[in-house]
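Good morning C.,

I know you're traveling, so I'll keep this short. The sequence:
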Amino acid sequence: MNAAQGIFTLYVGRMFLIRFVGFLLFFVIIMQMLDLLNRSSDILAADGATVDSLIHYIRLRSPQIIAQFTPFAALLGIVITLAGLSHTSEITVMRAAGMSVHRVLLPLGFVCVIVSIAHFIFFETVTIKSSDALDYWAANDYALNLPEDTGTRTNIRINFDNEYISAQSAARFGDAVLLSDVTIYDIDENGLASKVIEARAARHEDGIWRLFGVKTFDAVNLAVTENAVALWTNSLDPELLFALTLKPDQTSLSDLSKKIRQLRREQADTREAMTSFLGRFSRPMATLVMPLLGAIAGFGMHRQGVLLVRAISGSALGFTYFVAESLALALGKLGVIPALLGAFSPLALFMIVGFSILLAMEN
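The tokens, ready to paste straight into the viewer:
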């Protein structure tokens, strides 16, 4: 019996792995084609752009799609594998031979553990770098022969020191930091903008912020003034600026951890960064829940129409998990719930649901 169980483990594990890879390739190809339909005109509009630019875009975009759709591919691979085994009565035979539901699902769980580990390593070593390079390239209109990125930030939105600050970009130039297209809103005690300052650029050098091409609107006195150069008095230093505008999904775990400690020292908001940090561990672990949620597709009464209902139910449970995960992460980043709950509460909740389903099927 042990030999038969070993053969069954290899058989089911290989079957699931083939279907998982197939679904993942399907998602990558379809999403990449749709993405190119939307982006190809912008990419080819750059001076000197050729087909090589499209290939470079595919190389940078594909790791993002792979990381995003790995749990989806695992879910559908499990549902199709178990539904197929149920349709051919192979699960019925193994159950009649004395194998429990947990034993039947063991090879799927083993492959999911490997996929989850590979997902985590792939994201940390490949996806982060490609995402950062793609954002930098897109921010420069897909121009060719760009200089090396020195930590440019784009689409900046910061609420700090009773001011709401927006800027198109922030970049380092030696010891100086330059902001472009800056808008500063002075917020009063009622939460209203008492003054609005617009500037073509802002430069931080020698501990001082200078604004260039300044237009100021005083909401209290209804007055507008213009200056070529003006000083901006704000305690926001460049290092804190770059920490607050950090993109967690494009930063290594070690750098992200350092930035969180820096934000804590400055008594700045760490909710978004901390939730993203914990989410880097919880999102690859989503694959581990899929065998429990998709198990309903392979067990139950084998009657006409029932198999399709079970397969749809397993898929619906999995997609419900993804919705709950996205919602919990968003709530954690906003500070509505603690970061730990935002990252791991869907995983824990659906683990309980999955094991409850297994116990019900076992009985």
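Safe travels,
E.
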